[in-house]
Every structure is written in structure tokens, then in C-alpha cells.
Amino acid sequence: MRGTLIFAGSSCPALTGKICENLGMAPADAELSQFSNGETSVRILTSVREKDVFVVQSGSPKINDTIMELLIMISACKGGSANKITAVLPYFPYSRQSKKKSHRGAITARMLANLLGVAGVKHVITVDLHASQMQGFFKCPVDNLHAEPLIARWIRHNVPNWKEAVVVSKNAGGTKRVTSLADALKLNFGMVTTDKKRGTNMTASMIMNHLDGIDSHPYLDSISNQVRNNSSGPENGTAVAENGQVRPSRTVTDAQGSPRRANGPPARPSNPPRSHARAQAALSQSSTLSELDEEAELDGPEYNDQRAHEVTHGRLVQGHIVPDDFPSPATSAADASVAEEDPMTMSHASSFFAQPHALGGSGDAASSDEEDEILKNPKIEHMITLVGDVKNRTVLIVDDMIDKPGSWIAAAETVVKRGFARKVYCIATHAVFGADCLEQMQACDCIDAIVVTNSYPIQEDKARNASKLVVLDLSFLLAEAIRRNHYGESMSPLFLHMGD
Amino acid sequence: MSAEMANEIKLISGRSHPDLSDKIAKRLGIEVARTISLNYSNQETSFTVGESVRDEDVFVMQSTATGDVNEGLMELLIIISACRTASARRITAVIPNFPYARQDKKDKSRAPISARLVANMLQTAGANHIVTVDLHASQVRSHLRGRDGFFNIPVDNLYAEPSFLRYIRENFDPEDCVIVSPDAGGAKRATSIADHLNTAFALIHKERPRPNVVGRMVLVGSVADKVAILVDDMADTCGTLVKAAAVLKENGAKSVLALVTHGILSGKAIETLNGSVLSALVVTNTVPLGDKVERCPKIRVIDISPTIAEAIRRTHNGESVSYLFTHAPV
């Protein structure tokens, strides 16, 4: 394209190369390095005077260096009399910090938007902003592209029997994104949600046991002993189950989604020697399911929305699904009350002084990161709830980014172990993969494929070892956005789903 | 609580130089504010102020550690932004070692003026006032309060010079010293010290083909049988200082030491220093030195915290800061 220069930031030379290939041009010449004291050095080696300049920069493990490099590149181009500078940010850094999560926290994404403006950006092109309201942070125009058409196309071409698949959101905040994809593919949709259960000795299943009229206290000691003997990993669920202690999870309706009118105890006449029957069902604990508890029985007859009835619960300890009678971590951990003051956990606890769930309500997925932090806390047990029927279906778990593995693994285990899904695809636009996220997801038996785009650079050695990883190429989308921008054409076709 | 009580000094420390923050807080008789600063697994910085800053006079102390310049700068910006969002009355960024200060002019085609960018970024984040020490660039300095300068907000540039003068008076006989500037650009700084001490002055002219590369050096003036004191604003890789010291020795100096405000000491600086003819390198603690003092016995450190603390106190109380340009608080 005449009068256009595309500069690659150091985070994504490969993606920029592909974009340029799509446009039939070569990336512009710039020398990016660091001085010995760590300051970033940028040298623009070609004239930018009166040119339409695009600077492509994604995220990287050294995110702050990446941002400074971008700002200095933009500033250098502005100083070099470029006509217009567009920042192309496939992954917008700090996009999760787009609101005040605690009192006196920073809205870093807004600050970054302002910094880009100060550096001299006149236009921003980005992909799947974490919160689309962020477009309002900018004084300049923002094109927030969607990877959804690309992902939908991949699903149609690569997921066997995709018409029977269910799209699942792994948290309540992400449902909007998920319903959009479900609508595009005309698929059913489900949701997994996690509730905190902090420091209580009474687990839901124990309460339920009482409701069922069964006193489980005599078993409690033996269970915990058993579990300790088995080094108490969640994987020992089967060992516990053989002891006959596994209870089915509470399922309000049967698999077909029609309310069963059953009367508590008489509903399961086949298993009076509970322990043996349950032991056989150990691996498919809740396959016996469909026990109606009192509340459900009450509103069952009147309430006719079938999908809302397909609610499955599970217990989540240290990020994994555990059998219903797994000892509550609050009872096994010596004293949880002291732990609250523990300086080690303070930094975690304090980042939640304002409970995002309690105050937020704005319904964006900004809290998924904290959710992960909590999931890992061994002292807190969670109730994980699956809404929707996924039995024997392919499940597509969708979110905007994969950073930490916890919530993905928990959701995948829930749909497989509790919902009996056949296959699980984890799908996200931004493959941030913090720490050993990719390794953990690769190791998770419940996940069959991880589908991401190349908006965020993935380390090559990591990608090579991850056989489940599928990376979709965004370069065509970005190249087309750049081309349309340069020629002043409409962007709308890029948001449409392709026919095939 | 009375209205005056509501507006007090809140000192917030970034993670780069907590030691200096503690010293400043001690001088001011206050505690460093409680904050939580951490990096997410993807290395994005997250910051939260742990106590109210509403209507307070906030001072954010952040130096820039060698190698972590961008990390420190982003954290500073996020802290300022958080305080702005939390309704602080005024936010002063205390940046003893101003980052990117050397990239202050378009010396080549399309070279970025990063120092100006940093200045603009600080203002955009919400800083109302800047306090710094011995800013490198005369360009930045000369435009400090100008409308066309880098900053549209007040900047107090403090000087390490009074502390250096005291150090020389306490450790040497000024009669016996020659103050030497290692380059023409630093001549003003060196002559100022020489004037205050009533001593001789010399200058080394150097050719510098590229940054961090030192060319040929020529001594202007006499240092024979004197203690030669090199004066500069920053010691980075120390190539210049060490070569200058060698030139001074060749010209008959009794001993050579260097007085430098910012001891950045990056790269192989420590090895270079250890193998040099310099008898001592005196730096202030504007930059965190880490274990460098242990690794290099030649390094002496002057504590700059009294000057910064006094500047904070005077800024808060609306008193003149100019006293500090000529006097170092004890």
C-alpha cells in the first residue's frame, strides 16, 4: 500500500510479518534495543514523514517493557512528522484492570489509553477487548475487532458433530460473549458458576444428607482418616468411593430435563444398602442422580422452563472437583480463623477488600482472575454449579482469554465429571498462558483441545509440547482492518460471520 | 478532625527503592503508607492503596532500578493514577533518578525524545508536581517551568552539590584538590563546585562517537600533585570515568576520585571500577545500589534522604525550596 508503513514491536514480529504478507509489503525498518541501564532504545530507520504509520504490538512476559517500547515508537514516529499513527494492539495490555476493583485501586487500562493519546496515537485497532466499554477510555477512534467469526468458522469446519455441541461460559460474567457465539452457531448454551463456601463445617451435601434423613456423622471420622491415608488428593475420590461414601450430587431433574416427581427416600428403592450401590457408581457418581429434594419438588410442577432445571452441583476443593463426601478443607485445616491474618494470604485477601461479586454486578468478566486466586486457596471450598444439559455432547467452553488454568480446569471437570460431556474444547481469543497454565491444561484429562488465536505470542517451545493446542491466525483480520483503515472503507464486513 | 488535619503528607513508596523511602519517612517522622503492589502471572502490575488518601498531600517515591526502568516507571504511573482516582488533593512524584533523562533531544533523524514522553506520561497519569535530583539534561532543566518545556507542572530539581561540598570539606583539604569535569557538558557543574571551594578547575575533552562508547581524551588544565576530583551527574557503565581517571593519573594527579550523583552502574561497571585507578567513587543513594557496595570496596554512599525529606516538608508547607540549592540539611 502506498504511503503506509507497518512497524513491528519486539513482542510480535511473527504476527506483523504475516500481516505484511497479507498486504503484500514488508515491515518497516526499526531498531529496537535496550541501553545497558534497561532504558528502551528505539531507532526508526526509515523516513515516516507524511506517512500513514501502523505500529503493531501485542503483550509479552515483559509487559511493561513492551508498553514503553510501543509508546516510544509512537512518540518517535510523531516526532518524525508521520501523518497519522495507528496503534494495532491485538491484545490490549492491562485490559482486565478496566475498573476500580477495590477502593483506591487504579483503572490502569484507562491510564494506558490516555498514555497512548499523549504519545501521539490517532487511531487504535484491537481485538476482543476484555470489556467493550473500554472503547470509551479513548479520545481517538477505536476499532474493536472480533475473533468470533474466525472461531465460529473453525468450529464449523473442525468440531465433529458441532451442531450437537453446547457452548458453555465458565463464569456468569462471560455469558454475553458466549451467547453471542451460541447464537451465531445456533447452538444451545450453558453456564458454570462458582460460589464461595468459606470456613463452614457444613457442606451442602451434609445438609442434604440431613434432609434425606440420613445421619452421616458416624462416617465422618472414618472418611477423613481414609482420605488422609490416601494422602488426600482429589484424585483419591475413587478410593473414598469404594468405602461406600459417595453421594450423588443434587440434580433437580433427570437427564431429559423433565422434572421427576419423586418423593425423597422412595425414589431410590433399589439402593437400601447405599454403600454398595454407590460404590458401583463410584466413577459416575451422579449417574444415579435425579433425586428430587424438597425445594425442587415444591416448584417443580409449576416451573416449566426446562433448561433452567438442568442444574448440577459439584464441590470444588483446590481447583478440582471432589466427591461429595470429601472432607471439608475448613475442618481438616487446623484453624482457618488464624489463617485470615496470615501475612502470606494477606496480599490475596486484600486484593479483594471489595468483593467484586457483592459490589460489581456490572456483569463483565473482570473478576475471573481473582476467581482463580481463590480457587487455589486450599482453605476455601467452592460449590460449582452447572446450568444446562451437556450429557453426551461436545462442550465448547468459551472466554476472551486464557491466563490462569484454574477456572478452565474446574469448568472442564465439572462438565465431564458431573455433566457427562463427551468432549471439551477450551476456546479463547487471547492466549496469555501465565506461568505453567498451558502445561496444566495440557495435562488435564477433561480437556480435549485448546483453541486460541495468535493475538498474544505463544512461546514456541511451550506450543510444541502442547498437542491439544490449536492456534488460529488473526493476521488476515488485522491486515484487512489496516487496509480498510488506510483506504477509508467500512469495517463492518469484518464483524460478519462468513457463510461457509 | 479539623480541616487542617485532613491534609497531611502521605508518603507512598514504589517497589524500586524502599530503603530510601524508609529513610525519608523517618526524617519526616511519618510512616510509609500501606500499599499492595504485585505482579499478576502475566506480569501486569496491580496496585492498591491500603489507606485513605482522600484530600491528602500525596508524595509518591519511586526511583528506577537498573534493568527494571520500565517496570518502575509503569508502577509509578499506576500508583499516581490510583491516587488520582482515590481523590488525593495533590500528587507529587518524587523521582530521584529521572528515567530516560538522557534521551532528551532529537540528536538523530527520528530519534524519540523519550524524556519529554515520560514527562507527558506523568502529567497524564495525574501528577501535579515533580521532585527530582540533578536532572541530566540541560534541555529539560532550562525548560522546566517554561510553557514550551517538557513539563507543564512545577518541577523541583534538587542538587546533590551541597552534599558533595560537605563531603569534600570533611574528607580533603580543598587547597589540595582540583575539580575536574569529565566532559565539556559538565563544566558548569564542576566550576560551580570549584568556585564554592575556591579551588582549581580542569576539564577533559572527549570525543564520543556513539552513546556508551568513549573516544580520545584530552586534559585541559593542570592536576599535577593534586587530588583530582571528577564530578558528574551519572555513572552508568563507568567507561568515561575510568578513562578520565587514567588520563588524570598520566598527567600527574596524586590520586583520583569521582563524585557522581546517580550511581546507575549497569553492565560491567563494577568490574571496570575495581580494575581502575580511581581511589573512590562517591555516589548518592538516589538509585538502589543493591549488593554493589559489597562487590566494589571503592564505592562510598552519601545519603540524600535529608535533602529529599526537607524538600517534601517544604513543598507540603508551601515554603521555599531554594534554601536546599545551597545547603544540605544535616
TrEMBL record, chain A:
Polar residues bias (residue ranges): 222-235, 246-256
Fetch the PROSITE patterns from UniProt.
PRPP_SYNTHASE
Matching Gene3D superfamilies = 3.40.50.2020
Top enzyme category: transferase
Pfam families linked to this entry:
Pribosyl_synth (PF14572), Pribosyltran_N (PF13793)
Major location, coarse class? cytoplasm
Query: What's a single GO MF annotation on this record?
Result: glycosyltransferase activity
| EC number(s) given by UniProt | 2.7.6.1
Pathways involved? Metabolic intermediate biosynthesis; 5-phospho-alpha-D-ribose 1-diphosphate biosynthesis; 5-phospho-alpha-D-ribose 1-diphosphate from D-ribose 5-phosphate (route I): step 1/1
Gene Ontology BP annotations: 5-phosphoribose 1-diphosphate biosynthetic process; purine nucleotide biosynthetic process; ribonucleoside monophosphate biosynthetic process
Report the SMART domains cross-referenced here. Pribosyltran_N
Report the subcellular localization.
Cytoplasm
Q: Name one GO cellular component term.
A: ribose phosphate diphosphokinase complex
Q: Which residues form the Ribose-phosphate pyrophosphokinase N-terminal domain?
A: 5-120
Family statement: Belongs to the ribose-phosphate pyrophosphokinase family.
NCBIfam families listed in its UniProt record: ribP_PPkin
What name does UniProt use for this protein? Ribose-phosphate pyrophosphokinase 1
- Organism of origin is Podospora didyma
Automatic annotation (TrEMBL), chain B:
Molecular function (Gene Ontology), one example: kinase activity
Domain (Ribose-phosphate pyrophosphokinase N-terminal) ranges: 9-126
Cofactor dependence? Mg(2+)
Known Pfam families for this protein? Answer: Pribosyl_synth, Pribosyltran_N
Q: What pathway does the UniProt record associate with this protein?
A: Metabolic intermediate biosynthesis; 5-phospho-alpha-D-ribose 1-diphosphate biosynthesis; 5-phospho-alpha-D-ribose 1-diphosphate from D-ribose 5-phosphate (route I): step 1/1
Is Transferase there in the keyword field? yes
Alphabetically ordered keywords of this record: ATP-binding, Cytoplasm, Glycosyltransferase, Kinase, Magnesium, Metal-binding, Nucleotide biosynthesis, Nucleotide-binding, Transferase
The enzyme's first-digit EC class, named in words, is: transferase
Per the UniProt entry, the Enzyme Commission number(s) are 2.7.6.1
User: What is this enzyme's catalytic activity, as reactions?
Assistant: D-ribose 5-phosphate + ATP = 5-phospho-alpha-D-ribose 1-diphosphate + AMP + H(+)
Give the protein name, as stated in the record.
Answer: ribose-phosphate diphosphokinase
Source organism of this protein record: Podospora didyma
